[in-house]
Structures are given as C-alpha cells and as structure tokens.
Amino acid sequence: MKGYSENYWAKRAKQYNKTNWVKNENFMVRFLGMLPDKKYEPILEVGIGTGAVAEKVCEKIGPLTGIDISKEMISQIDHPEITPILGNAHSLPFDDSYFKLILMRNVIHYIDDPELAFSEIYRCLMPNGYFLFSQVVSPDDSISEEYDRLVGRNIHYPTQGEIIQLFSKYRSVTQDNFILKNQSIINWINNTCNDKSQKKHTIDRHRQTSDTYKRLSNFSETANDMFVDIKHFMVLGQKI
Ligand SMILES: C[S@@+](CC[C@H](N)C(=O)[O-])C[C@H]1O[C@@H](n2cnc3c(N)ncnc32)[C@H](O)[C@@H]1O
Predict the structure, then answer these.
(1) Domain span at residue 134?
(2) What's the CA-to-centroid distance between 68 and ligand 1, angstroms?
(3) Tens digits of per-residue pLDDT, 35-50?
(4) What are the tens digits of pLDDT across the range 167-203?
(5) Sign (positive/negative) of CA torsion 74, 187, 208, 197?
(6) Domain-located, residue 219
(7) Which residues sit with their C-beta closer than 6 Å to ligand 1?
(8) Domain holding 149: CATH number?
C-alpha cells in the first residue's frame, strides 16, 4: 500500500506547476506527436492533476474530460475545454468502450493497484481506441531498486519492462524515451516535499549514489545543487 491519498496532493497542489518538467514544451511535442493524425473524440485524461498535459491536448487535439482523486489539484484548472471530475483511476465512472483516446502521465507510480487502473482504462476505451502513456522511470531497469531508494517516499517507479507488460492486451504498441536534461534536484525536492529532514535525507542520498547511477543519469554537482537527466518512458497502444 503506497498510501498516496488526497491529503498528499492537497499539500502539493499549489507548488506543483513550479516543478521544472511539468510544462516542458519539448516533452509535450514528442508525447502528443506519438499519436497518429486522426480525429479523437471523446478524450479522457486519468490523473489530470493541474491540467498541464490537458491544456496542450485542447490546443492540438480537442476538448477533454479529466479525472483525479485530488480536488485541490483539479481546482487549479481553469479552461473552458477541460471538464475535471473527482474520481479514482481504480474505478472509472464511465461506460465500457466510451473513449477514443485516454492519456495518463506520471500517475501510475502513485497508484496502489496499477493493474486494476490499466484494466479500467482498457474497459473504457472503444475498440481501436488509443491509450497514450508516459512515466518517469529509472535511467535503466537494472538499477530500478537503487532508483526507488534514492527517490524515497515509498514509491516504486515501474520499470520499462513492467510497463510494457501492462500493455500486453494492446496492439501496435510503440514506445519512445524523452530525456529531460540537467534537471535540478533542489527544484524537484522543494516542490515535492515540505518536510525539512526528509529533504535533507533525499539530498544526502543523491550525493551518495552509485557510480553507475551517476554515469547513467549524467549526474553533475555545484556547491548548492545537483543535476541529473530524467527519463520519461512514453508508450502508445491501440485497443483490440
Ligand atoms: C505527478 S501528478 C501528475 C499530474 C498530471 N498527469 C501531469 O502529468 O502533470 C499525479 C496525479 O495523479 C493523481 N492521482 C493519484 N492517484 C490517483 C488515483 N488513484 N486516481 C486518480 N488520480 C490519481 C494525483 O492526485 C495527481 O494529480
């Protein structure tokens, strides 16, 4: 049980958009660029958060509905073409085969039962509908355990292998990596964690990581900060 409840997101909501990667334009272009050039309607985003991806979806593809467990996160959304709904990925309040496109970015590592969330998404997609997914992952599956310990917070970041396994029911599965270069650990920790001693421990853990992690993440250090490349694993699948 990961126990990332509404309370956790209530505390993060106001700072969330200040995290460097959230609105990264190059990421959005690569991520949404994975979709074949078609009409998509209706569209759902699961774990919509503050609507950073959703805003781009409206701009490039069309209006959408978004679901999230945190009312504080979705209260940051103010866009005429986004319909935010409070609800849980474990039990989506939609009919079978309803959506043509479902998106999810950086949600699955917070979800208690990823398989259940995936089966709910599959159920709500229409035949031939698309699921576009992205997740921060360890720089390499071989150091997944070290990565989980490093980030802390009782989170397991699914490996690329585990994610591909979750797509086993889909066809035409395509994948891509987007590397966000030189990301500040201090920016990330300041916008993720409010507890001073937890912050210090996380910073110490980053200083003490293995040479393998440092090499794979292009780790660098200044007097006041550390910088690493962050890997986003993006997958597109089509429902059979
Ligand atoms: C890291 S944020 C990502 C937000 C957005 N997808 C983005 O990429 O900017 C994770 C989001 O997942 C939501 N979330 C966590 N568990 C959830 C669940 N079981 N059902 C729906 N949303 C959930 C959180 O409330 C939070 O808004």
Answers:
(1) 6-182+231-238
(2) 6
(3) 999 999 999 999 999 9
(4) 999 999 999 999 999 999 998 888 887 788 888 898 9
(5) negative
(6) no
(7) 4, 9, 22, 47-49, 52-53, 67-70, 73, 88-90, 105-107, 110-111
(8) 3.40.50.150
